[in-house]
Design goal:
- This protein is an alpha/beta fold and about 220 residues long.
- Helices cover about 50% and strands about 15% of the residues.
- Strands 2-1-3-4-5 form a five-stranded parallel sheet, sandwiched between helices.
- Strand 3, helix 3 and strand 4 form a beta-alpha-beta unit.
- The longest helix has 15 residues.
- The radius of gyration is 19 Å and the shape is elongated.
């Protein structure tokens, strides 16, 4: 449902590592009532520094940033002060379970996909400034599916393999460390990926850290 623009403009900080995307967003948001783009950041570090200096109401944050700090880490730091800090609204191309979970657990107020219509984006920004959450329809569907069909917990062996994975060991090294075959390692890794909702080793380690599954 659409909301009325607040009496004073929403102060918005953009964070995206692509200059063309930032320019496009700035041009698009210039047509929106009640939204004032006060700055642009290309990295997570820039977003933190600019947020401290400019005091935006909302930070529109991409998750995939090429250099330095990733979007999730930036979200966690931006929202660390609770109500005294800005709201963070994710705007990204990625809607994997792992990305959604990490962003929301880090403190994001909303999660939008870049395929959204302009009016949906405008409304989400105003809602975020007012403390209301907004999720793209595909994101909401994924979250509801997860709640209705929660993934089983990791087994003791899967925890062991995940810990070895976090140390940067390859399949052969993990097999030697745990006295099992490489084929068994691969089988367990497939199950770990499925339970954590990821597709890569790095993704598994990142989600495991977020959920405090590692010793």
């Amino acid at each position: 449902m659409s909301t009325s623009p607040p009496s004073s403009p929403v102060r918005l900080l953009l964070c995206d590592d692509h200059a063309v995307v930032r320019a496009g967003l700035r041009a698009l948001l210039a047509s929106a009532d009640g939204i004032d783009v006060v700055g642009e950041a290309a990295t997570g570090e820039e977003a933190l520094a600019m947020a401290a200096h400019l005091g935006p109401d909302v930070v529109l944050m991409d998750l995939q940033l090429d250099d330095g700090m990733d979007g999730v880490t930036a979200i966690r730091q931006l929202t660390a002060e609770g109500s005294r800090g800005p709201r963070v609204l994710v705007l990204t191309m990625f809607d994997t379970d792992a990305d959604i979970t990490r962003a929301i657990e880090a403190g994001a107020t909303g999660y939008l996909l870049k395929a959204e219509q302009p009016e949906e984006l405008f409304t989400a920004i105003r809602d975020a400034a007012s403390g209301r959450s907004t999720l793209s329809a595909p994101v909401a569907d994924r979250l509801l599916t997860r709640l209705r069909n929660p993934r089983p917990a990791l087994s003791a062996r899967e925890h062991e393999i995940l810990a070895q994975l976090a140390r940067g060991l390859g399949n052969r090294e993990i097999a030697r460390a745990l006295f099992i075959s490489e084929a068994t390692v691969k089988t367990h890794l497939g199950r770990i990926y499925g339970k954590l909702g990821v597709e890569t080793r790095a993704g598994a380690v990142a989600v495991a850290k977020e959920r405090r599954l590692l010793p």
